[in-house]
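Hi R.,

Here's the chain you asked about this morning:
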Amino acid sequence: LSRCGYEVECAGSGEQALARLADGGFDALISEIHLPGPVCGITLMQEVRAAGHEIPVIFLTEQETARIRAALDAWEGVACLQMPLDVDQLKAVVASRCSATPERRAV
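And here is the predicted structure, written out as tokens:
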């Protein structure tokens, strides 16, 4: 995504992502559903939304189950991509979810 002009910030855990997202200023959240530690991707999304950040969320998962799909369908602005990741698909989803030009920030 950096090569496409997006500013990307990485976090090593859900807790780190929450800390970075706390100030706002991000245009998207891209996260695996299963993260190390107590904050999984879905919890991360719920915390971000509860803090008032209505940003698009793109989840990555190796195993999209019916239970995961049902949980994600309840949330607006959420996409889920299957791994291994198709980079062109990710770029297309990010471009469609972030309503502006690349210079946007994603964590």
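One quick note: DSSP finds four helices and five strands in the chain.

Cheers,
M.
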